[in-house]
Design brief:
The complex is a heterotrimer of chains A (194), B (147) and C (570). Chain A has a single domain (8-142, 156-185), classed as 3-Layer(aba) Sandwich (Rossmann fold). Chain A is an alpha/beta fold and 194 residues long. Chain A has helices spanning 48-61, 77-87, 126-140, 156-172; strands at 6-17, 26-31, 65-70, 92-96, 102-106, 116-118, 182-192. Chain B has helices spanning 17-20, 38-43, 55-67, 71-83, 88-97, 105-119, 122-137. In chain B, 40% of the residues are buried. The chains are: A alpha/beta (194), B mainly alpha (147), C alpha/beta (570).
Chain lengths: 194, 147, 570
């Protein structure tokens, strides 16, 4: 995968504890503990800056606003996503792990259920993230969009599963039990790669 | 309602009951296996309530499991016999109540009480009480809502 | 991989052979170094506990070196429900190598082995199987599996969640020999339509096939309660407390759920597998097999009849470390040693290499297990919504050939083209009629025709997804049940399919399918570890592939006739 000569990087700036939103036209994006921290890209090297840029663009295109939070006390995607959904004014959230695994959740669903699940992190590229953002926003507006189509690569497991396990172990080490979710602002920076 | 209490305990030779001992089998609605025919389906005489298992049958299968030296499986069937009396929606909500941090100690205690008092489900109640004790020690009871 | 080169020099010459080897499929697989501190190790770890047990007043007060005060909920549950208190001290005192010998010795009966194992702790069981190489593990499995007759299970799913595809591939899978069929969804809300399709298709191929729909726990139970599915399997358990809790369950909630299924007459088994804990980030420093043995004992304590294991969806993890596939064989054996039915993996894509895929299968296929695969893909892997199986439709002829080569029964058989086309068409027509009768989204004649000859979801016309989703929702809202499906099939003229489905539903009343390793024969007779007990006691005993069944498995797609070598056996 070629990278541009200037790369967008991302820093998350905490602005306070994450609170329940009141506006019905918002989607909460809930990030895992190591996102844009010790990790800066997904398992297939999509930069985290790009992941967020695409999610936000997809949401905005639907005329919906986005609020970003970071969860610190778990690295479990369902828990992260469902927490975001419960804090979201529309009840809709997008949860993302550092390696890229993503889920659209809704606050009234069981934690281990979801609206849409994207379990194969190696298959998620920039255009898919944009569509995910767009669908989440459409759910927030009360619409029933067609689920985002994803490739089904049955060789993703043999190729990537052990690496994903290693990445997850590393993300797991960044968990801070008892630390509540934080609302964050996104600082995108342009830097030249060498 | 079921076979007389003076029958010999079941052995593994009685299995499968549907082939070897259909005389012992009844639906919860009191029908024999032989009554569960296509004609009965078409006429509406047979409904979903008829294709369920009766508590007595679960106890028979528990006897067979014991005869096959599978005591935990037999215990499962005995709990299941108690649960036949509980409506579907309530079984589901009871299961959800036993999940991590889903219930407080008081709620689990009330659940055990309801199982025993309302349904005579003493084995299920014992399971719930055991869970409550362990959850208390392992921080798996419901936390106060944070917001 | 480039080699380091001093600046200014031309590229070092590499071996032509290396170039070829680099391109081999096996080099696309993922391999990692062991990390025992984090549990990224198969079964040989210095961090696993030492075996030990102490009993006081009929209660286990110390388990594998851990005092009761330090028990997590897995220890507590295992100590209370899984280990036979009366025999534990005596059994734990038997040297591990002696127990291992009993397992492989044909002259020691299955019952004698079970009697010792039921008193053992997780670390002791690990200690025993660590002494066994993979051949010995296979020898043990041959004797210890619960049901004498091996069987097989398949997935039938669709990349587009197309219910017609699920139905016709279920029908073909059933006629090829699968005893159980499993489906799942890309989009969960499709579940009712797809579960119905699986149920109908499964009864067309041959009657008596049991079907399940893998979903979140409460939803899966609801479908089962309505009689739209016949059994449940993806009831997951985990080897550490933290990962179990992340999975939103406990041994007690799962035990309650298991009894809930039994209370509705529905067969079920738990699912576990090596690698899940380390994959979810917290193996608490224990080896994969140690944690899986904890799962197996928890399952035994809960009183479920069986277990799906063999790493399952985490196979890429043991598959990436040394000795991982040996550990996977060992976990199947341990489940059998604990007198559980075993649905033994081979259900998840594991390697780019055909050689590796088959090697992984051998420890289950050769001795036979209750279900050699817990999910052979009865659809092309691109349509497999479990993210790919170890085997798919492209492998049918190879599988049948290997059965014939080695004279082993892997549960499948070759079926002629015209027979397959006939069951596929019938399944599509039955579903079409049923959907019409139930006011569900239309299935057209063009779809039926496409389904008959199709290979993958690309060969079917696209369906109106949103209409199907609405239809699926209406199934739940209207409270449709298995009896409604029987009625609908009967009313639309599919009497045999209706009768088959009614017979499967009727079994709920008897509870015969709740016993260990229960399946239905094509004649709808319950066959389980009770009336088909494994009596293996050495050469010439136990299940043997012979007689009529062997004749059936001698058939392949192209076999030259002996009586007339210019023709093929038809």
């Amino acid at each position: 995968m070629s990278s541009p000569t200037t790369e967008r990087t991302l820093k998350l700036r905490e602005i306070g504890p994450a609170r329940r939103g009141t506006r019905p036209d918002e989607v909460v994006i809930a990030l895992s503990p190591a996102f844009a921290g010790i990790f800066s890209k997904t398992i297939v090297e999509v930069p985290h800056a790009e992941v967020l840029r695409q999610l936000l663009a997809g949401i905005e295109e639907q005329g919906v606003t986005a609020r970003v939070i970071q969860v610190h006390d778990t690295a479990d995607l369902a828990a992260i996503s469902h927490l975001g959904a419960r804090l979201s004014g529309s009840g809709i959230s997008v949860g993302v792990l550092s390696r890229g695994t993503t889920m659209i959740h809704q606050r009234d669903l069981a934690r281990l259920s979801n609206l849409e699940l994207f379990p194969q992190s190696p298959l998620l590229d920039a255009p898919v993230f944009r569509q995910i953002g767009s669908n989440a926003a459409r759910y927030a507006k009360g619409e029933s969009p067609e689920p985002v189509p994803t490739r089904n690569d049955q060789m993703a497991r043999p190729r990537w599963q052990a690496k994903a396990a290693l990445l997850h172990l590393k993300e797991f080490e960044t968990i801070e039990a008892g630390r509540g979710p934080e609302e964050v602002e996104l600082d995108f920076e342009l830097s030249s790669a060498g | 309602m079921t076979a007389s209490t003076s029958r010999a305990p079941l052995t593994t030779a009685d299995y499968p009951l549907s082939v070897n001992r259909p005389d012992l089998l009844r639906t919860p609605t009191g029908k024999a296996l032989s009554e569960l025919t296509m004609d009965a389906v078409v006429s509406g005489a047979l409904t979903a309530a008829d294709v369920r298992i009766a508590p007595e049958t679960l106890l028979l299968q528990a006897e067979i499991a014991d005869a096959a030296r599978r005591p935990q499986l037999a215990a499962n069937f005995r709990r299941a016999a108690e649960m036949t009396a509980i409506p579907d929606a309530e079984v589901l909500s009871m299961y959800n109540a036993l999940r991590p941090r889903a219930s407080s100690a008081e709620q689990l205690d009330a659940l055990a009480g309801r199982l025993e008092g309302e349904y005579g489900a003493t084995a299920c109640a014992a399971l719930v009480r055991e869970a409550a004790e362990v959850y208390g020690r392992r921080d798996l009871l419901a936390r106060p809502e944070q917001d | 991989m480039t080699t380091a080169q001093p600046a200014g020099q031309s590229r070092k010459r590499t071996s032509l052979r290396t170039d070829i080897l680099e391109e081999r499929p096996v080099n696309l697989d993922g391999f990692v170094e062991e990390w025992p501190e984090k549990g990224l190790v198969a079964m040989e770890s210095a961090f696993d506990p030492e075996p030990g047990v102490r009993v006081e007043d009929g209660v286990i007060v110390e388990l594998d070196g851990k005092p009761r005060a330090d028990f997590d909920f897995m220890d507590t549950f295992i100590a209370a429900h899984a280990i036979d208190i009366a025999t534990t001290e005596a059994s734990m005192a038997v040297p591990s190598d002696e127990i291992a010998r009993m397992i492989i010795d044909p002259r020691t009966s299955r019952d004698e082995v079970l009697a010792v194992i039921r008193g053992l702790t997780p670390a002791k069981i690990l200690d025993v199987v660590r002494l066994m190489n993979v051949v010995e593990i296979m020898q043990g499995m041959q004797k210890m599996r619960a049901r004498r007759t091996p069987a097989n299970q398949a997935h039938s799913t669709s990349a587009r969640d197309n219910p017609i595809q699920v139905a016709v591939d279920a029908a073909e899978g059933a006629v090829r020999g699968f005893a159980e069929l499993e489906t799942t969804l890309g989009v969960v809300r499709y579940a009712p339509l797809v579960a119905i399709a699986l149920q109908v298709g499964g009864q067309v191929g041959r009657g008596g096939v049991l079907t399940q729909c893998a979903l979140e726990e409460a939803t899966e139970l609801e479908l089962g309660m309505r009689g739209i599915t016949a059994y449940a399997e993806t009831i997951s358990i985990y080897g550490t407390e933290s990962v179990f809790v992340d999975g939103d369950d406990t041994p007690w909630s799962k035990t309650f759920l298991a009894s809930a299924y039994a209370s509705r007459g529905i067969k079920m088994r738990f699912t576990s597998g090596t690698g899940s804990e380390v994959q979810m980030g917290n193996a608490e420093g224990k080896s994969m097999l140690y944690l899986e043995i904890r799962c197996i004992l928890m399952a035994r304590g809960a009183g479920v009849q069986g277990l799906q294991n063999g790493s399952i969806s985490c196979i890429g993890v043991p598959g990436a470390v040394p000795g991982g596939i040996r550990a996977v064989a060992a976990e199947n054996l341990v489940a059998s040693l604990c007198d559980l039915e075993v649905a033994s993996g081979n259900d998840q894509s594991f390697s780019h290499s055909s050689m590796r895929r088959v090697a992984r299968l051998m420890p289950q296929l050769l001795p036979g297990t209750d279900f050699v695969c817990s999910g052979y893909s009865a659809v092309p892997n691109a349509d497999n919504m479990f993210a790919g199986s170890n085997f798919d439709t492209d492998d049918y002829d190879d599988w049948n050939t290997i059965q014939r080569d080695l004279q082993v029964d892997g549960g499948l058989r070759h079926v002629r083209e015209d027979d397959i086309l006939a069951v596929r068409r019938r399944a599509a027509e039955a579903l079409q009629a049923l959907f019409r009768h139930l006011d569900l989204p239309t299935i057209t004649d063009a779809e039926v025709e496409a389904a008959t000859y199709a290979n993958s979801s690309n060969d079917y016309p696209l369906r109106d997804v949103l209409a199907d989703l609405k239809g699926a929702q209406s199934v739940m809202e209207r409270g449709l049940t298995g009896v409604d499906l029987v009625k609908g099939l009967e009313a639309t003229g599919f009497h045999d399919v209706a009768e088959n489905l009614l017979t499967v539903l009727r079994q709920r009343v008897s509870g015969d399918l709740l016993q260990t390793s229960a399946i239905l024969t094509p004649d709808f007779v319950p066959l389980s570890a009770i009336n088909d007990a494994n009596d293996y006691a050495g050469p010439g005993t136990g299940y043997r592939l012979q007689g009529e069944r062997w004749e059936e498995l001698k058939k392949l797609r192209h076999v030259t006739s002996a009586s007339n070598p210019e023709t093929e056996v038809s």
